[in-house]
What we know:
9 helices, 293 residues, mainly alpha
Amino acid sequence: MAKPREPFWLGGAAACMAVCFTHPLDQTKYRMQVLKSTDTMLRTMSRLAARDGIPSLWAGLSASILRQGTYSTARFGIHASLSASLLQCSGRETLPLSWNVACAGLAGGLAGLIGNPTEVVLVRMCADGAKSPQDRFRYGNALVGMVRVWTDEGARAFTKGLAPNVARSILMSVSQIATYVSAKQHLVRSAGRNDDIATHVLSSLAAGTVATTLCAPADVLKSRMQNSAGKDSLLRVIRSGLREEGPRFLMKGWTPAWLRLTPHTVLTFVFMEQLRKITQLQLFPRDAATCKL
C-alpha cells in the first residue's frame, strides 16, 4: 500500500510559524549585509533596538511570512512531490541519497525563482531601519511593498538578485539535506542514538552550519542587489565589495545568518512534526538515510 502524500503546504506552514520567532535575527542579517560597517551582530541589533524600540526588531515580519509562504512552500512541497513520484515510479521503498539531493537541488532552484519577488520586498523592509530616513522605502506591509515595487519600478524589479538567489536556494536545499541526512544517519546507526527530537536537533545544528557557510556569498550578493533601487549588476556589486571591503565581505552577516538559520531549521522540523501528526502522517521514514525535508 502506497504511503499517503503529505500536503503541499506543510513545509511552508511550518516555516511561517518558525520565522515568527527568528525574524529579528533575520532582519539583523539583512541589515549587516547591506551596511558597509564593522559592527557586530549584537551591536547592530542593540543599537537599532535602542534607537527605534524593541518592537522594531519585528519590522518587516509580514514580508518574512509572505516569503516563507511562497519560497518555503515551494521548496518543501516540490521536494516532497518529486521524492514521492520517484518512489512510486521506481518501486523503491527508500530513495538513495544522491536522488534525494537531486530532488532538493531542483526544488531549491524552482523555489528561488518563485520566491524572488517576495525576497526583494523582504530585504528592503528589513534594511530600512539601518538607513537614513530619506533613503528608506517605507513599505507599510509586504503587500503594499509588492504593489509599490510594481508601480514604481516595473515587473523587472522583481528579478533583482535572481541569479544569486537561485544559486543560494539550490545550495541551501542541497547542503541542508545532505548534511542533515548524513548527520542523522551517523547518530542513529553509528552513535546508537534514538531517532527522536534530540537527534533531529543535533542533525539540524550541523545542517545549519554547513548551509550558512555555503550560502553566505550568494546571500550577501543577493541582498545588496535587491536592496538597490538602481541598476547595479552582479559584477558591479562584486567589484565594489572587493574594492571597499575586501574578500571578507562575502561572509558579512555570517553570525546572524547562522543564529537565524539554525534555530529556524530546528523550529521548522519541530513544527513539521506536529503538523504531520495532525494530518496523521509520519514525520520521517524509519530509515534515517532516507529522511526528507
